[in-house]
Amino acid sequence: MLAMLIALAAAAIVFNILSHGLFLSPRNLWNLAVQTSVVGIISTGMVLVIVSRNIDLSVGSLESFLGISGAFLQLQVLHIGAPNTWWAGILFVVVLGGLCGALQGAITAYLGLPSFVVTLAGLMAWRAVAWLVTRGETVTPLDSTYSLFGDGSIGVAWSWVVGAAIVLIVAALALNRRVSRSRVGFGNRQWWLDLAGIALVAAVVFAFVATMNAYTYPRSVVGRGIPVPVLTLIVIVGIMSCLATMTRFGRYIYGYGGNPEAAQLAGVPTKRVVTIAFAIVGVLTGVGAVVTTARLNAAPLSIGQLLELQVIAACVIGGTSLTGGSGSIFGAIVGATLIQSLLNGLVLLGVDSATQQIVEALVLLAAVWFDIIYQRRGA
Amino acid sequence: MTQGPPLVEMRGIHKRFGGVHAIQNMHLTLYPGEVLGLLGHNGAGKSTLMKILAGAYTLDTGEILVSGSPVQILSPRDSKRVGIETIYQTLALADNLSAVANIFFGREIVNAFGMLDEARMERDAISVIRRLNPNFQNFHALVGGLSGGQRQAVAIARTLQFNAKIIIMDEPTAALGPQETRMVGDLIRQLKAEGIGIIMISHDLHDVFDLSDRVTVMKNGRHVWTGHVAETTKDQVLEMIILGKVPDGSYAPGMTSDFG
User: Fold this and answer.
1) Cβ contacts (< 8 Å) between A261 and chain B: which residues?
2) Residue A105 and residue A49 in one domain
3) Which of B52, B75, B96 to mutate to test the interface with A (most CBs of A within 10 A)?
4) Structural domain of residue A373, as residue ranges?
5) Residue A264 touches partner B, C-beta closer than 8 Å
6) CATH code reported for the domain at B8-83+164-259
7) Where do the H-state alpha helices sit in A259-269?
């Protein structure tokens, strides 16, 4: 993990020098954060699927189907500009995503088909279903409130509030840990260690908020603040980290990934747990579809191409083992940020899209190579 | 030792896997505070019979009674619910979780908000595991990195944590060194004294004669003989295991067919 953070810092410095300071400008970092959000959001769920010794190859294709279905609903059933359109559209896409994910998970868990095959079928089918919905036509324009989820931002003041809230939550968790340990008669580590940890988090969070606030609207001094897609990513990272490390469900996913037979013998409802993991990826793919279509203010058939591979690569670069049992959500976010930084940096340097795809391919190879290195180190 | 109603009674158990009749008309009884040695060759059906009791397999026909009342065991959860805990030969531990997480795996303590209560689980895990091994330290290390004896201690601690009435041990000492084997022996005697019934599957006749009160011998998925260890000898038991020949010189039902 530390290696990945160092790689990220090195990439940032190199790109910044080569682009004459463009890479680390507030404007570019703001854009980079938005570009990272979709891959980051979905990768938090993909980590759990991979930890459970499965894979989900369908997310790119599913994003296209969900995006088009949601847009179709907005235009044909709800009405653009009506007060309920934005949230009903989002709810529909997210629920539909959950159902599609649960279907693939249930086929994997209850019928015993390999998830590789089930979601490969999903990869082939979902985009075709999307084509059938609109006969391949791009759906546009979308509701203007809905569009804020793609290109809106929350302003300077709210950004500071969000930053403060994150720091407070981290501090509350540290305090809760101390209290619950004291309650059962355990000692605690030195208080200043906890305090130093919180201070580090606060420094990173406030630097991030300051950067987002430093990117102003054209011809004005008003800062934009945290983009809505990035706020969405932050909330999802919080929920998913809690799910993975603080709940039974998370414990079952990791235990099942470590030893499926042991989980079954321990009475863990393994099939249900695996199905839920796929349903979560489906929900998050729905969120990704909302962000993507809202940002484009359109739902073309072509969204989400190779998205599954970017998401899987983000997980693996972030330390998730493809053989299951280990991986973290924080790691996946670092992985997603690293991939997007490379792509973003190449765009800044004027590299053409063909070369970008080759770099993406190399990043994927490097990711699997890292996985092998991690395993060897573990063995 | 064999007073009171049986803790476990299995009657007329049948189990088929496809065309293979793995268990035929098998019966077995376990009393409180006794160790029952379950003996037989590889493939005699011992592990299958115990997996039925543990809920890992479901029986085709037959009856299981716990403390005199009939119970339905369709899953590992059902088995644990009636007070049966199982230590598998493979130990069935998740190597990527800590000792504490393994002990509570499947039965985690949660707080009022449904979140894992790590501090309480750690406190309880420490007290139960220290009963087995006072020197145990690595509560937060991943179980995959522990020694054979420490892994065994974690697997046993998992059964003690939940106040089992009945413990099934599949080859409890197979992977252990002499000192650790002695530790497991001491533990089994201690559990017996607490009134827990133990079914011990073992290949090691020495262990069985040392620790068991009674033995049940199986061959080809059938019952051969059950009796007190004092009523028999190791040689006789070997004859039962290999030939299905009981101490009075006759063959158990279904055994002679093997010889034409």
Assistant:
1) 90, 92
2) yes
3) B96
4) 2-152+227-378
5) yes
6) 3.40.50.300
7) 260-265
Looking at beta carbons, which residues of chain B come within 8 Å of A247?
Answer: 110, 114-116
B193 interface with A at CB cutoff 8 Å: no
Look at the alpha carbons of A245, A247, A249, A252 in this order and tell me if their dihedral is positive or negative: positive
Residues A143 and A177 in one domain: no
User: How far is B103 from B98, CA to CA, in rounded Å?
Assistant: 9
Cβ within 8 Å, pair B95-A264: no
Percent of chain B as helix, strand, coil, to the nearest 5: 35, 25, 40
Task: For chain B, say whether A261 makes contact (Cβ under 8 Å).
Answer: yes
> pTM of the predicted model, to two decimals?
0.90
- Tell me what ipTM this predicted complex has: 0.86
Instruction: Give, for all 260 residues of chain B, the pLDDT tens digit.
Output: 446 789 999 999 999 998 888 999 999 999 999 999 999 988 889 999 999 999 999 999 999 999 999 999 999 999 999 999 999 988 899 999 999 999 999 999 999 888 999 999 999 999 888 877 778 888 888 999 888 888 888 998 898 888 889 999 988 877 777 877 888 888 888 888 888 999 999 878 888 888 899 999 999 999 999 999 888 888 888 888 888 888 777 787 777 655 43
Q: How many domains does chain A have?
A: 2
**How many angstroms separate the CA of residue B121 from the nearest CA in chain A?**
10
Which residue, among B141, B210, B143, has the nearest Cα to B172 in the 3D structure?
B210
A218 and A243, same domain (yes or no)? no
What residue segments make up the domains of chain B, in order of their start?
8-83+164-259, 94-162
Alpha carbon distances (Å) from A84 to A79, A88, A143, A231: 9, 6, 10, 22
A158 min Cα distance to partner chain B (Å)? 28
For Cα atoms A274, A55, A62, give the angle at the middle one, nearest 5 degrees: 95
